[in-house]
Write a structure and sequence with these properties.
It is a single chain. By secondary structure, the protein is of the alpha+beta class. The protein has three domains: about 90 residues, Double Stranded RNA Binding Domain (2-Layer Sandwich); about 80 residues; about 120 residues, hpI Integrase, Chain A, CATH 1.10.443.10. Helix content is about 50%, strand content about 10%. It contains 16 helices and seven strands. Strands 1-2-3-4 form a four-stranded antiparallel beta sheet, covered by helices on one side. Strands 5-6-7 form a three-stranded antiparallel beta sheet, with no helix packed on it. A hairpin with a 6-residue loop joins strand 1 and strand 2. Helix 6 runs antiparallel to helix 7. The longest helix is centred in the C-terminal third of the chain and has 21 residues. The termini are far apart.
Length: about 400
Amino acid sequence: MMKITKTIIDKMNYNKTGNRQDIRWDDDLANFGVRIYPSGKKSFVLSYRVAGRKHIMVLGQFGVITLQQARSKAREERCRIEIDGSDPLKERSKMRNARLVSSLCSSYLTDYARPHKKSWKDDERRINKRIIPSWGNLPIIAITRDDITQLHTAIGKDHPYEANRVVELLAKMFSLAQDWGYVDVNVINPAHSIKAFKEIKRDRWVTHEELPALAKAIDKEKNIYARSAVWLYMLTGMRKKELLRAKWTDINWKQRELCIPDTKNGLKHYIPLTSQALEVLSSIPKVKDNPYIIIGLKPSSHLVNIDKPWQRIRKSAGLEDIRLHDLRRTVGSWLAQSGSSLHLIGRVLGHVDAKSTQVYAHFAQDHIRGALEDHGNKLMAVAKENPSMVIAIN
């Protein structure tokens, strides 16, 4: 036994016995020592007991970590063993054999997202851009709440909405990891209860004053399929992908409706076609052997990306802050302003959750005010027939 110092370690003779247990123990820190290998390599070790069994744990190689770092690490491990009763070697083995985050990502996309989510490509993009580069080669069980909080904060500096979606995605992935047996069911989901960035719902639509300029810009667009698509968005309130994927066979000309067989919420949705929508549809050229209404450049395909035509249109109209999805919001807004009920608006837009339609409630204030105005006029008219009921208004 001796008090181990760097000078003593440097002078330690090579182990020529071939015995891996040639350990020189320290008399200053109990159960801490230096193992000398036949190759001459030296490593710091810690001896400990768990459940009556003796174990020797390598803390690090001499030269890679310092004596001071090794002593500090030995004290930390001893505290964990004595306080928690944990076995650090067993935890290391579990970590080595644990599934990696990249494996969970692959399983999530294959077994959950693609079969069950219409928006699985958004998940795939976030996984490839945000999650794999950060933790792809790490074990799932190594990811901590602090790791996710730091990622959330980093993304949220410029993209708070995206940061919240990434945390929601991670929470679902870790929940599925428990269901699939990738991690112990008793492990706390590290993505749960992370405070989200405040999100302000977008409240932009095309106003009555803006519509003439937008209509003129739409009609100037040379691509008839893109031009027709934008008008149909404005007239029907359809979602972008649902319109682009619509086929001629989805139209019932007699019933004047278009059927979306598979919507975002997984339900079949029938959209009434107004005379204006039917006029636009009738003007769209059909292409032989292409079943789609809004055709793309490739044979038998639909238009996939309408962003470039839309950029031209909104720039020409001087409405560059209007997004394509705002046209769908315009339908709900105008219906609400005309006095349509939220239930009716929800039916038009294909909302399953009433909360999705509630955003249009404030547009109905003028309609409500008008109803109360009529009520007040009737009330005062009756009151004047009986002067004793009239209340003086100063």
